[in-house]
Structure formats: structure tokens, C-alpha cells
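Example: Heme oxygenase.
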Amino acid sequence: MKNDYLTRLRYATRDAHKQVELTTNGNDLISNPNKDSYALFLLTHYLFYNEVSHQMKLANEIDGLKLEDLPKQEVIGIALLEDLEILNIRVSTIPTIYDYQSAFHALGMYYVMRGSTMGNRIIFNELSKNKNFVSWNASNFLKTSLKTATKDWTSFKNELLIYLNDNYKEIENGSLEGFQLFGKLHLKAKKSLDLIEA
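Written out as C-alpha cells, the predicted fold is:
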């Protein structure tokens, strides 16, 4: 059955998912909400969004892969930039660092990007109890990703299933590298925010 491929993909990337949670300190934002950790959360997501969106643009231009889900995610990038600007973090043009490999490899990375916002409801609900977070007034990314999260995630999975059967391995490899990339960009964001020594 087609859905078996989604289950297989989820289990194949489970360890990589756990590893990136360790790298990024998982739920640290919830347990220790402060402006630095929130800025790091936003910038990491923006860098990842920028990288994966570029990959998907090339997948369309070079290999003709076009997802109906992709245009819906443009508001995510806008919301991230709005929040970063509110926190006085200026983001100039960011060069991409990952070489394009194939459309289905890019699709695997996109799967990670889409999944990375699925926990935002929990994050938003917890942070909304924090007076400092509320005072920052920088919750555009969290609110935007919540509006149609379940509906859009379901429709995206249906699109993904179209390609999984014949291109599973490429998509799995792209997903695994997507998790690794998220971890690397988290460290890059830390350096750019001077939260660790460069």
C-alpha cells in the first residue's frame, strides 16, 4: 500500500530526527524561553526555509517537479522575516550552501522542512503563557504555520505519495540529509547571533 512508504520514511528518518533534536536542544525554547533562544529558533528555521526553497525552485526549473503545496509555504518565509525584523535581526541576502542533486532528493529535504513546523502548536501554546514572549509581539511564524497546518500537511502527504513508490530511496536520502542540514544551519545561526564563538 502507498501509505506504507510514508511509514517506512518516518521510521527510516527517526534516528536522524532524534539526533537533530539533540543538536538543537530539542524543547529548550519551551523550558527556557528567552529572546536569544527564540531568535535562534526563528533564524534556524529561516535559513532552512531559504535553503530548501532554493532546492525546490531548482527541482522545478531543472527537472520539472512542481508541487501544489510549495506556493502555500511562501507565507512562512515572509512571516519568519517579519519576526526577525521585529527582534532587530537583519537578514541580508543569504547564499545557499547545498549543491542541487535531483528533484526527488530535494523533495526529501522539503519533507523535513514541512514536518519541522508540525510541533509549532505546542510551542505557541506554551510560549503564549510567557509574558516576555507576548511582549515581543513576534509570533507571525508560529501563527502562520498553525492556520492550515493539519489540512496542508495532509494534502502535502498526498502529493508526496505520488512520488514515493518509484523514487523512495532518493527521497529518503534527501530527508536524511535534510535533518543533517537543519543541524548545521542551527550552528550557523548560533554563530551569526554571537551565541557561540565563531
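The CA atoms of residues 67 and 159 lie 7 Å apart.
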